[in-house]
Amino acid sequence: MHARLISAGAMVLVGLLCDGAVAGQEAPPQTQADDFTRYELQEPGSGAFRILYDVTATRAGAAYYFNSIRAGADEVVHGVTDLATGRALGFEVVSGAEARAQGHPRASAEGRYIRVELTSPVPEGGEVRIRIDKTYLDPESYFADGGEIVFARSLGIKRNAVVLPPGYEVTAVNYPSQVALEDDGRIRLSFMNIGPSAVPYEVRAAPVPGGIEVLAPIDTRATLPGYEPETAVSPPTPLGVRLGHQVSLRAGQDREIVYYLQQPETHSFRLFHDYTERRPGMDRYLNVVRTGSSASDPEAFVLDTGEHLQVETLRGREITSRGIALNQVVTPDTEVVVIWYDPVEPGQTRRLRIWETYTDPDRYMLVGKELVWDRAFGRPRNAVVLPEGWFLTHSAVPGTVTTTEDGRIRLDFWNARDGNIEVFLKGRRR
Questions:
Q1: How far apart are the C-alpha atoms of 177 and 10, rounded to whole Å?
Q2: Is 403 helix (H, G, I), strand (E, B) or coil?
Q3: β-strand pairing of 64-69 with 112-117
Q4: Residue 186 and residue 205: Cα distance in Å, rounded?
Q5: How far apart, in whole angstroms, are the C-alpha atoms of residue 374 and residue 363?
Q6: How far apart are CA 430 and CA 423, in angstroms?
Q7: Residue 81 and residue 245: Cα distance in Å, rounded?
Q8: How far apart are CA 112 and CA 108, in angstroms?
Q9: How far apart are CA 230 and CA 1, in angstroms?
Q10: Is residue 170 very low, low, confident or very high in pLDDT (cuts 50, 70, 90)?
């Protein structure tokens, strides 16, 4: 991977920005994205919970990230990690005044902050992803109530998970949450907050007599009627229940996509989707173009560094001749966009942004005087921006509506479910 070069003059400018002292101008505000918090409740009665906080710094040129410490809690910071490289980052607890002087002009003067020194300044148009590992002692938020434990805390982050202590079952939770048993036998609750305010989240839990046994994975074949492993030539007809279904951490998934609709007569839309590769040795991203669509003008870059990547579109025999395996039968009409990058090293991750223009006359069109969009979304976070000059008249799936800086209508759909949503939109010209 190519190194990102910064001139000595640029480094001086970054340092001045961090000190908030460029010709008397206030440093620009800190910006961030993709926050996800995992709370691991410690021994009942301790009032302690471990926090793994993943966050992305997005202000171009920023050399530090400041994480606020909530008032009323005593903290122990175990470490900070750069998620792209796996390297440990330097950190220090500073006052609000120090945070203001060092690049966070909106820091509370009465607050305390974990100042994280980034591996390199945030690249223009890119980002820096970090994980902060800390433990809070806060008996006001985590306490015993009779024979139960209670975790009650206002959570402003949009994506969260709470893990119960070993041997505890959930008896109540006040906000719609996904529940899953982790491999070590602890129960995890998680949710995505699609509203504008913090969630006053409350979980109650009680000990399970004898604890929670960790079971071996189900051999789904053995549960099917008539299956005899010694004599079976072919598997019997499967059951309707999804015995092998894996409950993934939906709130923890960080794939997102934004569609910029072009005028409906074209049936086209420009889009970008962000994806994090975590598999060691992987050196490519495969985007199989949906049947009925065609893709053009692909481009991609690494958000962690700003590096632009090699992209090519392959069809039919070109796919198999290049040794690219797909989870489907390759036909002459199969089309795949391939993004190549340096193999991911163990302990590292890579965050990609991929741009493409799609044309899909079956799902995006002009009918009379109305724009019609009908497309399934599988990612947790999705957005659609209407073409210039159009207003929204119908949205079958609930979403939030905002207006972009250039006056276009944007809809955001957060899908906390383990499955697709069918997004149907209609609009008219102003």
A1: 46
A2: strand
A3: antiparallel
A4: 12
A5: 5
A6: 22
A7: 32
A8: 8
A9: 51
A10: very high
Integer Cα distance of 173 and 161 in angstroms? 12
Is the Cβ–Cβ distance between 244 and 220 less than 8 Å? yes
Residue 328: helix, strand or coil by DSSP?
coil
Question: Read out DSSP for 230-262?
Answer: TT-SS--PPPSS-TT-----GGG---EEEEEE-
Cα–Cα distance measured from residue 158 to residue 172, given in angstroms and rounded to the nearest whole number: 21
C-alpha span between 281 and 82 (Å, rounded): 19
For 13-43, write each residue's pLDDT tens digit: 334 344 444 445 677 999 999 999 999 999 9
* Buried-state track 32-43, b at ≥16 Cβ within 10 A, e below 16: bebebbbbbbbe
Band the pLDDT of 333: cuts 50, 70, 90: confident
**Chain CA centroid to CA 425, Å:** 25
For the cut 50, the answer to whether the pLDDT of residue 1 exceeds it is no
pLDDT of residue 16: 39
Non-local (6+) Cβ contacts of 72 within 8 A are 138, 140
Q: Which two tokens stand for residue 324?
A: 């690219």
Cα–Cα dist 191/176, whole Å: 7
List phi, psi (to 5°) of 18.
-65, -30
The whole-chain average pLDDT of the chain stands at: 89
Tokens 């799609």 sit on residue: 358
Q: Which two tokens stand for residue 168?
A: 């505890």
For residue 256, give both structure tokens.
Answer: 């997102």
Tell me how far apart the alpha carbons of residues 338 and 302 are, in angstroms, rounded to a whole number: 14
Q: What integer pLDDT is reported at residue 209 of this predicted model?
A: 95
Task: Work out the pLDDT band at 323, boundaries 50, 70, 90.
Answer: confident
Query: What is the pLDDT at residue 289?
Result: 87
260 Cα distance to chain centroid? 20
| Residue 68 vs residues 96, 152, 164: alpha-carbon distances, Å | 9, 19, 24
Task: Point out which residues pair with 96 in neighbouring strands.
Answer: none
Does residue 227 or residue 297 have the better pLDDT? Answer: 297
Rounded CA separation 342/40 (Å): 35
Q: How many CA within 13 A on the CB side of residue 355?
A: 11
% helix / strand / coil in the chain, to the nearest 5?
5, 45, 45
User: Which pLDDT value is given to residue 226?
Assistant: 58
From residue 355, how far is each of 77, 143, 275, 278 by CA, in Å?
38, 48, 12, 20
Which tokens hold the place of 279? 């598999």
Pairing verdict, β 159-163 and 32-41: parallel
